[in-house]
From TrEMBL:
Pfam family, one: HEAT_2
Region described as Disordered: spans on this chain: 103-143
Feature: compositional bias, Polar residues: 108-118
Entry's Gene Ontology molecular function annotations: oxidoreductase activity
Protein name: Condensin complex subunit 1 C-terminal domain-containing protein
Signal peptide (residue range): none
InterPro entries: ARM-like (IPR011989), ARM-type_fold (IPR016024)
SUPFAM superfamilies hit by this protein: ARM repeat (SSF48371)
């Protein structure tokens, strides 16, 4: 969320929106108002969408606080796209609070569900275990997976960013125990990849794997 590239931050916001509201709310609200407000309108739009989606299943009494923060964001917003998105979120949250009912997934799909966002949709499509058809393989599954991991890790160091990006997508299809330590190194610290595209892919892959 502190990456210098706005597309990486936007992908990270989409991933945070998949968490429960208790975790997501304090993180996302900082991107909308106050000293931590993100300077990218695209990131702020994503934060509003993710906040609405993450808080769509909490108890009505807790929606009030979320609603207040979105109202603050809306009134302090100078970007038209973010303002309109926040306005829609306010209507959504007000209706939710009034009814005191949990939203069905179907009802959030139009405006508030992050599945409408390309980053989140791609993340969901990347899910699944690459080694599920073990009965169809002649090689020992564990050995085959180890060989695949070894080959993929080598490609993560390729000089071509497109090759590295493809390798990141492949790592995201592994389970979280394997994928997490590999992918997090591409996002922060001395091993941080210098390509924003690779870092975006790493965020998406992490979200899918974990």
């Amino acid at each position: 969320l502190k990456d210098e590239d706005s597309q990486v931050r936007r992908a990270a916001v989409g991933a945070v929106g998949k968490l429960n509201c208790v975790i997501a709310f304090p993180v996302l609200k900082k991107l909308l108002v106050g000293p931590g407000k993100d300077d990218s309108p695209g990131v702020r739009v994503e934060a509003v969408i993710a906040l609405s989606a993450a808080c769509g299943s909490i108890r009505a009494k807790e929606v009030k606080e979320v609603l207040n923060e979105v109202v603050k964001a809306c009134t302090a917003e100078d970007d038209e796209e973010v303002f309109l998105e926040a306005s829609e979120a306010i209507e959504f949250l007000e209706a939710f609070e009034e009814k005191r009912l949990e939203l069905e997934p179907k009802s959030t799909a139009d405006n508030t569900d992050p599945s409408t966002n390309d980053v989140t949709r791609r993340s969901r499509n990347n899910g699944g275990n690459l080694f599920y058809k073990v009965s169809d393989r002649s090689q020992d599954p564990a050995e085959e997976q180890n060989n695949f991991i070894e080959a993929t890790l080598k490609k993560l160091k390729d000089e071509d960013s497109q090759v590295r990006r493809a390798a990141v997508g492949a790592v995201g299809k592994l389970n979280c125990v394997i994928a997490f330590p590999v992918l997090k190194k591409l996002l922060v610290g001395p091993g941080k990849d210098d390509s924003p595209g690779v870092r975006v892919e790493a965020v998406i892959a992490l979200s899918a794997a974990c």
